[in-house]
Amino acid sequence: MGAASMRGGIRMSGLMWMPTRPMTLMRVLAWHPQPVPVLPLLGLALLLAYLLGVAVVMRRGDRWAIGRIVWWSAGILTLEAMTVTGIDGYGMELFSVHMVQHMVIGMFTPILLCLGAPMTLLLRALPARQRSRRSARGVVLAVIHSRPVRFVANPVTTVVLFLVSLYGLYFTPAFDWLMGTMWGHNLMLLHFLAIGVLYFWGVLGVDPSPRRGSGFMGAFSRPVMRLSELAATVPFHAFFGVVIMMASSLIVGFYAHPPASWHLSPLSDQQAAGGIAWGFTELPTLLVLGVLFLQWQRSDARHARVSDRKAARFGDAELDEYNARLAALAARDGGAS
User: pLDDT at position 281, please?
Assistant: First the structure.
């Protein structure tokens, strides 16, 4: 990682920094971005792009829900909190702090971002179709429904990728290799974010996706099927945390030697990391369950309104048929008597 030097109590290691003083709540929450703030800059760019899209939509006279802006901003805020505070630095020294960073960026942040409906905003902000050429909106829709995106968005693919990012990273030498450089570390965090967004894009079903339609993929656009997809990953995620928590030896070598002055046991810190991974499953799951329940409720209410409008305009065919059947039975009974 390069030669280390001391600057203000922080050990600099190439383009990365790690704290030298023991962890406290104030030190973890203190403002301290990495020397090359890759993810913080990405977060700011995403926030500015989203707000620009909202401005374009509202300038046209269309409405955009304040709640979606709040969700997106909250997602960016969680991303910034994990990368511009001491969490990023202490995450380079302690497995437990790194696991907090992983769980938030890989599970909580993607949920908030997906609830902001960025794809819907993009489609509404893009210019309308022009006569001489294909519209940018049409290009985006073509990409969304292309074969590669359909394959990546397939529920089987997203579940496999979500689980491989857990087991394949921590139980292979990949983790130590990526944590060895600043670029590898940021690539891993970007991987957590991308896989989480891909997974919850399909589970939440807020934005347009290849799953909308008929057939197998269309079935997975329904709340019940998306609930099944969510349930499929929960036990594997919990088992991942239990394995780390119950391991009698170190799983990753990067955290084998914490600063001696901190008097911390690497194995105890690893067990804490496993407990965090195991316990963190509940918060995102409850949030997604709440969203799916509201979607289900709104879908039923929308279906009821459509049925009522049809009945008011054309009459209730099912009710008329039922009444006719009752009348026929009454006439038959009257004739028999």
Answer: 85
Q: How many Å apart are CA 277 and CA 191, to the nearest integer?
A: 17
CA-based diameter of the chain, in Å?
A: 105
User: Which sequence spans correspond to the domains of the chain?
Assistant: 4-126+136-280
Q: Which residue has the tokens 């993607």?
A: 110
- The pLDDT score that the predictor gives to residue 5 is 41
Which residues, at least 6 apart from 52, have a Cβ–Cβ distance to it below 8 Å? 125
CA-to-CA separations, 85 to 90, 101, 181, 293, in angstroms, rounded: 9, 11, 19, 35
- Measure CA 288 to chain center: 10
Task: Read off the pLDDT of each residue in 70-99 and give the average, rounded to a whole number.
Answer: 96
Helices (H), the chain: 25-29, 38-59, 66-83, 86-90, 95-103, 109-115, 118-125, 136-144, 147-153, 155-170, 174-178, 182-204, 215-219, 223-246, 266-279, 282-314, 317-336
pLDDT of residue 209: 87
Quickly state the pLDDT bin for 221 (edges 50, 70, 90): low
What is the rounded CA–CA span in Å between residue 98 and residue 46? 23
Question: Do 83 and 40 form a contact (C-beta atoms < 8 A)?
Answer: yes
| 216: nearest Cα among 202, 195, 196 | 202
Tens of pLDDT, residues 147-164: 999 999 998 999 999 999
The pair of three-digit structure tokens given for residue 253, joined into one six-digit string: 């070598």
Residue 12's pLDDT is: 42
- 19: three-class secondary structure by DSSP: strand
Q: Which residue has the tokens 């290799």?
A: 177
Q: Which residues pair with 169 in a beta bridge?
A: none
Rounded distance between C-alpha atoms, residue 227 and residue 206, angstroms: 14
Residue pair 86/19 in contact (Cβ under 8 Å)? The answer is yes
* 96 contacts 276 by C-beta, under 8 angstroms: yes
